[in-house]
Amino acid sequence: MSNSLFRVEMSKRPTKLSKALFLRLCVSLLLGLSYSKMAALAQEITQPPPPIVFEDWQVDRLDDASTVYDLSFPSPYASGYAKNDVVPLKIFMPQDSPSPVPIVLILHYWGATDLRLETGLAADLNRRGIAGVVLTLPYHLARAPQGTHSGELAIQPDPDRLVRTMTQSALDIRRAMDWIQSRSEFKKNSVGIMGTSLGAIIASLAFGLDHRFTAGCFMLGGGDLAHILWYSSRVVSERETLRHRGYTEERLRVLLAPVEPLNYLSPEDERKTLVIGARQDTVIPPADTQKLIAKLGHPARVWIETGHYGGFIVERRLLNTLENFFEALFKGQKYSVPGRLYSPTIRLGLMANSESGLQIALGIDLWRSNSQGDFFGSTLLTPRGVQGFLGARVSRGLSVGISVLAKHLAPGVLWSLV
Predict the structure, then answer these.
(1) Statement: the pTM of the whole predicted model exceeds 0.85
(2) Which of the 8 DSSP states describes residue 258?
């Protein structure tokens, strides 16, 4: 969907719009949301931020392969919180590479309490001759208003606030891109963007809005914000509040349309992308990762056989995969997709059987019937020793089956997070 669809005048015939967008507009009118408000919200995010004069970056430290700089600038979007409206950047420059160099903008996950993963990635890119810049998202870390923890205000059970937070995020990124384009140290046609989880969702939105990005990597992200909010295991309390206030999935889809990444991406876009998804993800449902893949057209894709948080087990291999992607692309080389990274499926939960009662269990799957784990066999460590479990999944997180004890079998139930 082109960036200008939301700006079509009401005086034009509906046939000028895509059928999907026209139907959404009709639904929005029935829901009491005026077209003019929806168009105004969309125009906020599609318009580039006003140009500014950036301050000079300041040296923070020298590392083995990097010179690290600090820079901050005012957000183009005023949230009303002074701390949140200042955008800090941490810039990593390779020490021994001639300018100009390629650069990757890196976004963190929801609720991040530090930037260890992101700054480590930036330093690794420096060793490959690629600069890295880490941007702090709204309401996180140094941008968290006093009295709130990192990310607390980023996702609230209020569609209007969600739209505004996503809009601020996208405009902050576009202003960061303005700064990148203003510096002679960077190659203007070799700028990538990468994000993890919430950062991946925002990165895909910014990628669709700003075609100055030449490549994108989206790790543990997805599209269709309404579906993610309605089925994610990470926003249970927020979803219940939305339901209590009378919202439905379809109503959310209409209200969040101005910031829906899928509305700004196109399968015809020839820019190179990489998508990393988790088959057992309950935070970003795999179906929504697939929607992102379909909208990107033909991205390189890698799947891990674990849940959203299981990626830490293969963190180094995941980072190496995306570093290889950017390095190959910026050097004009062909990127070889690994396809699937082996990652053990780790379970943490509660197990109950007639012999041992209820107990905490931590284990690893030794066998799975399919990628969804409809039937599986696990070895579990419990306070009463090692036990086996042969189970069948009956709902999200809940399985029934047979506990394999030292001398006999017993019927059992397992509730676990993967």
Answers:
(1) no
(2) G
